[in-house]
Hints:
Radius of gyration: 21 Å
Amino acid sequence: MAALLLTVATPLAALLDWLLLTAPRTLRLRHATVWLVHPLTYLGLTLVRTVLLPADAPGRAPFPFLDAGREDTLGAVGNSLLTALAAYGLGVLLVTVDRLCPGVVRSRPKTGFRLRPPVG
């Protein structure tokens, strides 16, 4: 169930959030760089875990290409860097699409109506 939430529900929720709740043309290239903090931290901790745990430990690496025991350590680091580069590329693509395409939900025009506290 957790894998389903992680791989299906979370990306769909993020896509809907971007399409429906994010104002159009507000994403910048620096956002794609900030979005890398979580994946790079995850990759770093995963590599440390695969080096520290014994080779026969269950669940040592979540993905075979990150297992420093199966691959050499340099190969696992290279795979991690390629994964991070792909994540950054997707972020840049998202920023580009946001800049080129109009938003699905248009912001409402200002009507001048403001709520005021009751008098008296």
